[in-house]
Amino acid sequence: MSDQPKPGPYSGDVVRPAGVVAFGEAPDPVPPLTPALLRRGQERFHIYCTPCHSELGDGNGMIVQRGFPSPPSYHIDRLRAAPPRHFVDVITNGYGVMYSFAYRVAPADRWAIAAYIKALQRSQHARPEEIPPDQRQALR
């Protein structure tokens, strides 16, 4: 028994932090932004996200109105500056009181939802000079 191998401080299995060991699915490349992708993202957003985040993305969905904690608005500066990958990661892994939707939302749909969130953010914060002149006339 005295000559049997003993575990040292650096021997044995090591638990590594998430995202540093390759296994499972490879990360999906960012799909090209198309009208079809945005339509799919809008559809999936209304199914999975609006109960908490609302259709406007302001964090005042039906669940929140019934007493559950409010998620942050997508229109705050921190989230407006976040890349689409941030939203894909949150959908995949969860964040705060939001649980993971990885088993409910397919990877391609996560990117579609992230693209729609960025479009939703842009719709609430577009400057007049960014709107094409022919469409500017329709807004007056």
UniProtKB/TrEMBL annotation:
Taxonomic superkingdom: Bacteria
Every Cytochrome c domain range: 36-121
Gene Ontology molecular function: any one: heme binding
Keyword presence, Heme: yes
Residue intervals passing through the bilayer: none
SUPFAM superfamilies xref list: Cytochrome c
UniProt keyword list: Heme, Iron, Metal-binding
Name of protein: Cytochrome c
